[in-house]
TrEMBL record:
Keyword Membrane: yes
Start and end residues of each Major facilitator superfamily (MFS) profile domain: 94-507
Protein name: MFS transporter
Membrane topology, record value: Multi-pass membrane protein
Superkingdom of the organism of origin: Bacteria
Compartments, record wording: Membrane
Residue stretches spanning the membrane: 89-110, 130-152, 159-175, 181-205, 217-243, 249-268, 329-349, 361-383, 390-409, 415-444, 456-477, 483-502
InterPro entries linked: MFS, MFS_dom, MFS_trans_sf, Sugar_transporter_CS
SUPFAM superfamilies: MFS general substrate transporter
Primary localization: membrane
Keyword Protein biosynthesis: no
Length: 509
């Protein structure tokens, strides 16, 4: 039997010479298109006829190796396939859906900010009362992040997202029918439950559909949907408020939430990492169905659990397990402090600008500037993660946030100046937030990823609920904008210092 190898290309196969010596077979090695070397036992001759003909390369060892590689591939962990293979168009489409869901999340969170001038005018409430109203969905988000985030690790990311969309739609439609401030607060808490669970589930789903190279970028792009929703929502809200009252903003949010349900149902399958963690009777079939949609090879059987996975399954069900306790506590503190600065900007801009004598539609436009800056900041940070460590990028964004929010408190009162400083502040504060989402996704295993995201964001969002209330009481106590902005900016500075300490003790970043 003859075997030929094209030596002008990368090594296709190996022929062991000692085997050739013992074998009566003849092996032909094609060293170039014009030269054939014939080896027969110990004798090597140059065949003249080979100078004028090519030999089709063939190597039986290649066949055996290909067969072995196929066998190994069939037993390969599908998570490793996703980690190492190039991202397909289908994977990018799932990331795009997650971006859209966070855009919806961003609009729903700020819908109360867009509506706040009209609510204050209709019901005659002061700044302190308005601060409480602005905080209500943040309270719901904190609860939803913790409770629903844990559910996402038990029932799946996709089912959780669909449930959250239903809750959000119900809360938005109900808010539009509120007869008084009490009922509005109740419905905003309900909406917040869905909003909080949504972020926990989408953060995990995005991290698990991306490969190693683009994981941080994809999580940051997902989080960039938040300011994108602010931009689109702010533009829509400005148009709605010129023709209708504040209730139209909530109706629009409810309709948008309903429209996303079929998109998620048909085009965003459950993550492979979750199926590997759950290991139900039909997990293999579902994993292979998703691998086919991604354009990746299927697996023949479920790989065995590693010792680390078994340890996490038995001992790591709580974030307070020794392996996760410190990073959970510190990342929660970081999120708590920075989110206070972030939500001071987002929640109070419309009211502050309106009190300067500008129209509510102009105030909504300034808020859109913050969102445009946030979207740019998210994109820049995401691209930077391809070359720099996400930890240091996030720390830098937080320190920059502190300075820019202080600058907002001392900015001139014309719309152009306000829009510029608010856009810069939005750029830095949002970059810090999306950087934290990427850090959280990298810090915890699959079995705890949504739980950790929900817990860090849920408890941390105590800061988001506190920010509008604290700023409201500071304003009510007679403090001017510059003092209030300085106070609220300190949150980002403290968050950066804590994150520096986290960087010193964390080995995985």
């Amino acid at each position: 039997m003859a075997a030929a190898v094209d030596a002008t290309s990368p090594v296709i196969g190996l022929i062991r010479l000692n085997s050739l010596v013992r074998s009566p077979a003849v092996a032909a090695i094609d060293l170039s298109p014009r030269l054939r070397i014939v080896m027969c036992h110990n004798k090597m001759d140059i065949a003249p006829q080979a100078l004028s003909q090519n030999v089709a390369p063939y190597n039986i060892y290649d066949q055996k190796r290909a067969s072995a590689n196929g066998w190994e591939r069939s037993r390969m962990d599908p998570r490793k396939i996703i980690d190492e293979e190039r991202m397909s168009g289908f994977q990018w489409s799932v990331v795009a859906i997650m971006v859209g869901l966070l855009a919806l999340d961003g609009f729903d969170v700020l819908s109360i900010s867009f509506a706040s001038p009209g609510i204050a005018a209709d019901w005659g409430i002061d700044r302190a009362e308005l601060g409480i109203v602005l905080s209500m969905e943040l309270v719901g988000m904190a609860i939803g992040s913790v409770l629903i985030g844990r559910i996402a690790d038990n029932v799946g990311r996709r089912a959780t997202i669909l449930g959250c969309l239903t809750i959000m739609a119900a809360g938005m439609f109900a808010a539009a029918t509120s007869p008084d401030i009490t009922m509005l607060c109740i419905w905003r808490v309900l909406t917040g439950l869905g909003l909080g669970g949504m972020l926990a589930a989408t953060n995990a789903a995005t991290a698990e559909v991306a490969n190693n190279r683009f994981r941080s970028l994809c999580v940051i792009l997902m989080a960039a949907g938040y300011p994108l929703g602010n931009i689109i929502g702010g533009s829509v809200a400005a148009a709605l408020l010129t023709a209708y009252d504040w209730r139209s903003v909530f109706i629009f949010g409810g309709v948008a939430s309903l429209l996303f349900i079929p998109i998620v149902w048909f085009y965003a399958p459950e993550s492979i990492a979750f199926h590997m963690h759950r290991r139900s009777a039909d997990s293999l079939d579902k994993i292979n169905a998703t691998l086919r949609r991604m354009g990746h090879p299927e697996i023949g059987e479920m790989p065995a659990e590693s010792s680390e996975e078994r340890a996490v399954r038995s001992d790591g069900k709580t974030l307070m397990a020794p392996a996760f306790r410190m990073q959970t506590i510190l990342l929660t503190l970081v999120y708590f402090m920075h989110i206070m600065t972030f939500y001071f900007i987002l929640k109070w801009i419309p009211k502050i600008v309106a009190d300067m004598g500008h129209e509510p539609s102009a105030a909504a436009g300034v808020l859109v500037s913050a969102s445009v800056g946030g979207l740019i900041g998210s994109g820049l940070l995401g691209l930077a993660t391809l070359r720099a460590n996400v930890f240091w990028l996030t720390i830098g964004a937080m320190l920059l946030s502190c300075g820019l929010v202080i600058g907002f408190g001392r900015s001139p009162t014309d719309i152009a100046s306000l829009s510029l400083i608010v856009a810069l502040a939005g750029c830095a504060t949002n970059a810090g937030i999306v950087g934290l989402y990427a850090i959280i996704a990298l810090a915890f295993p699959t079995s705890l990823r949504a739980t950790a995201t929900g817990a860090v964001i849920g408890f941390g969002r105590g800061g988001s609920a506190l920010a509008p209330v604290l700023a409201g009481f500071l304003f009510a106590a007679g403090y001017m904008l510059d003092t209030v902005a300085l106070t609220m900016a300190l949150g980002s500075m403290l968050a950066a210092f804590i994150l520096i300490y986290v960087r010193r003790i964390a080995r995985d970043f």
